[in-house]
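Lab notebook, design round three. We kept the backbone fixed and only want residue identities now. Task for the bench partner: fill in a sequence for the structure below.
Input structure tokens:
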């Protein structure tokens, strides 16, 4: 009975560890994506009368799209203490790997300068996905690591 309780408590503690790691990575990635949306504020054309905003800049007599993707990995590296390791970023605790972050895809969705369709995109949106891989400490290396793909989204909405 004691052995079963010990085994169950190990499984519960491992599950809680995985949740904490995934939530920490998700929060850092979401914060970095919010920073990308906020970083584009000075390029955002405020269409006050139309009620939308997009990243455009006037050049001569025409407008062109002006948005940036930022550097999400660098922000996450600073916040989480990640190290670049062969095409992905990893967090180590001494010699042991805690988790690995890879596969970042970021899409900055700009509004049309003059939207033709009512109810279409009315704000600058930043969406992204990132893959997190966490090796399990339960199972003595015989179980595959937890791998999840997180979807993140942020939008720039002008305050005034």
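Proposed sequence:
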């Amino acid at each position: 009975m004691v052995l079963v309780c010990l085994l169950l408590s190990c499984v519960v503690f491992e599950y809680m560890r995985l949740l904490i790691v995934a939530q920490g990575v998700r929060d850092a990635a979401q914060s970095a994506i919010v920073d990308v949306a906020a970083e584009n504020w000075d390029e955002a054309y405020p269409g006050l009368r139309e009620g939308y905003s997009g990243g455009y800049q006037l050049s001569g007599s025409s407008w062109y799209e002006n948005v940036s993707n930022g550097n999400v990995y660098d922000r996450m590296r600073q916040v989480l203490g990640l190290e670049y390791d062969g095409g992905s970023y990893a967090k180590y605790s001494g010699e042991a790997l805690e988790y690995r972050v890879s596969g970042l895809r970021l899409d900055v969705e700009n509004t049309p300068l003059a939207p033709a369709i009512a109810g279409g995109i009315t704000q600058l949106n930043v969406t992204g996905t990132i893959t997190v891989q966490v090796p399990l400490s339960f199972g003595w290396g015989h179980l595959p690591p937890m791998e999840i793909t997180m979807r993140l989204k942020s939008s720039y909405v002008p305050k005034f």
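Keep this in mind before ordering anything: The first strand starts at residue 44 and ends at 47.
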